[in-house]
Each structure stands twice: as structure tokens, then as C-alpha cells.
Amino acid sequence: MSNPSATSTRLSAPELRATVSLAAIFALRMLGLFMIMPVFSIYAKTIPGGDNVLLVGIALGAYGVTQSMLYIFYGWISDKLGRKPVIAFGLLVFVLGSFVAAIGHSMAWIIAGRVIQGMGAVSSAVIAFIADLTHEENRTKAMAMVGGSIGISFAVAIVGAPIVFHWVGMSGLFTVIGVLSILAIGVVLWIVPDSPAPLVHVKAPLFAEVLHNVELLRLNFGVLVLHATQTALFLVVPRILEAGGLPVASHWKIYLPVMALAFVMMVPAIIAAEKRGKMKVVMLSAIFLILIGQLLLGAAPHTLWSVAAILFVYFLGFNVLEASQPSLVSKFAPGTRKGAAAGVYNTTQSIGLALGGVVGGWLLKLNGPSAVFFACSALVLAWLVVASRMKPPPRKLERAA
Q1: What is the C-alpha separation between 91 and 67, in angstroms, rounded?
Q2: How far is CA 213 from CA 44, 209, 371, in A?
Q3: Which domains, and CATH codes, for the chain?
Q4: Whole-angstrom Cα distance, residue 255 to residue 308?
Q5: Within the chain, which residues score under 50 in pLDDT?
Q6: Phi, psi (degrees; rounded to nearest 5) at 35
Q7: Nearest-angstrom CA–CA distance, 283 and 323
Q8: Is the pTM of this model over 0.90?
Q9: What is residue 335's predicted lDDT score, i.e. its pLDDT?
Q10: Sign of dihedral through CA atoms 322, 372, 351, 90?
Q11: 3-class DSSP state for residue 334?
């Protein structure tokens, strides 16, 4: 829907409907993925194979493996067959994986379900659909709304998962995840607008410009580290809270105030960064907060109060980055390669999720929680060094003459 003659700097009504509905699909799907993180490490102790923390890490990260392998394929096939049928099919596969995990009562079944969930890798097709339905000068806003929806879904999942788990158990939680994805299919079929025109197929190589763009490579490395360390963190933190005397059903008492305060402080930081052209400074500050959080989790005494304070520092940084980085990808991507840039970004995100689960589980089994947090700290420090050389992102496009 890119139109060089368009001059509006606001999302039109059709663009707003398309962006909100597609962001809702992202949010519903990511909500399902995030919801197992705060509780699975505790639940795993009660099922066959769950005493092996390496298997627990594999279960958390397994969907990232298949997801990373299929993102590009889903984007390509959606060019051929259309966005809606491909996105609906991918969500249906995700539903199947959720229900497989729901009926499984062993680590093997749950890992199988997570692998199937990852095969519903529709994010690149959704990003491409947003590009179809928005004008060039409004695309960054649309991507920022998607990033914000992911951040909100993460906050809701982290707070709500312990409560839902207490009510319905892990099987019920996987069932809820499947139902959310069925709702997302309904949004795709009946709420998201159709593409306004036949898709234009570009025969030029899609990824050469993206893979040689240094700024995009920095962001790709960053999202890999961000989600690898997040997955690894949730292998350990629920166990720390339980060991501190807080049962899993009450973990929301820590997560709710932490996430609420972090979210309230994140929003004005991003708005101010956009308006004043200080996004690089805000991004580096957020990475530094994540580094401090990981270091303190590895070195500080673990009381409920200290863990809550450290998690606030960590999640303030995490929320800023989770909400802002998709927008930065859109800003740095070459004009005709935004979809390809998003596909590569989502692929590296999934690789990070997989690595965080597998390597985090291995480190936890080998050397205990501190090894996990210090390894994460080393990764985040490397990210901070890489990101420190990032060019300031381009400012918003000016209104066309």
C-alpha cells in the first residue's frame, strides 16, 4: 500500500484498523508463548523428566528452533499464496502444538508440543502484511505499535500466568494458549482488512542489503541476546521465588508491581527519546539496566525484596528494548527491504530464545544459578559494546512537500 504521493503523517482509519488488528494477533500469540515462562520451571519438577533442568531448558527453547527455521519460509509463501491464508494456517499449527503440550504429562510430550508450536512461525508474514496495508511514512508508527503490543502481552503474561496456572494447572494453561490462538485466527479472517492490491513480487535478492547493513546486524545481535537472557532468567527466577517461601500461585505479587512500575516508567522514556532524537541514549541505558539486573541476580543475596528490586531494574530495561527495537529495525532497513529486515530480526530473536533455554538449562545443571546469570551478564556486556557504536536512528520522515 506504499504510495509516494501520500502526505499524511497520521495513520488513516484503514491503516489504524489494520495495524491494531495485526498487533492484536502478535499480542495474542506472544501472550501464549510468554505465559509458560514464569511457571514451567516449577511445574516441570512434578512430571517425568522434569528433574533434568537441561530438558526443562530445551522445553522452554524448543519452539524457537523450529520457529527460526520457518520464519523466512512463511514470509516467502505468503508472497505466493496471500497473507491471510498463510497466517491462519500458521496459527492453526500453533493451536495444534498447544493442545499436544496440554495432553502431554511428560517432558517428551511437552517438548514435542513446543516444537509444533514453533512451526507456526507467522511473525514475518504478519510484518509483511502490515507493510502491505500501511503507507511508507506511517510504517514506523505501525511497527512501534506492534512492538508496544508485544511488551504489553509480555507484562500481562508474566503477571497472569501464575494465577491462571493456580486455577487450571499446566494442561489448562496450554489449553488457554491454544484458545487465544483460535481467537487470533478469527481476528485474521474477519477483522484484518484484505490487501488492497495484488502483491508485487520482487525478483531482486531479498537479504543481501539486510545482511550487510551494520546497524541491522547490531539490532539482530541485540534481540538474540535479549531473548536468550530472558529465557535463561526464567529457568531460575521462579525457583528462587519458591525457595524464598513464595508459592508459584503467589508469584504475581512480585511480578505485578514490578511490571506495572516498569511499564509506567518505560512509556515516557520512549516518547521522550522519539521526540528529542535520543533513542540511542535510551537504548544504551536500557541495555545497561539489563546488565546490572543480571549481575545482581548472580551476586546479591536472594531475598524476596531484593529479587523484586532487581527484577524491576531488569524489566525496565527489557520493556524499553522490547517495545522500541522493532521500530528501530524499520527505521534502519533499506526502503524496499523492511519485510526482509523484519524476517531476519524475528529469526535471530527465535534463535536467542532457543539458545537461552538450551544453554541456560545446561549451565544450571552444570554449575547452578549463578553460572546462568553471569553467562547472561557476559552476553549483555558484549551487546552493550556492540550497540555503543550504533548510529543514531534517523528522525521521523518529514511531511512530503
Answers
A1: 12
A2: 41, 6, 34
A3: 14-387 (1.20.1250.20)
A4: 8
A5: 1-8, 199-205, 397-401
A6: -65, -25
A7: 11
A8: no
A9: 62
A10: negative
A11: coil
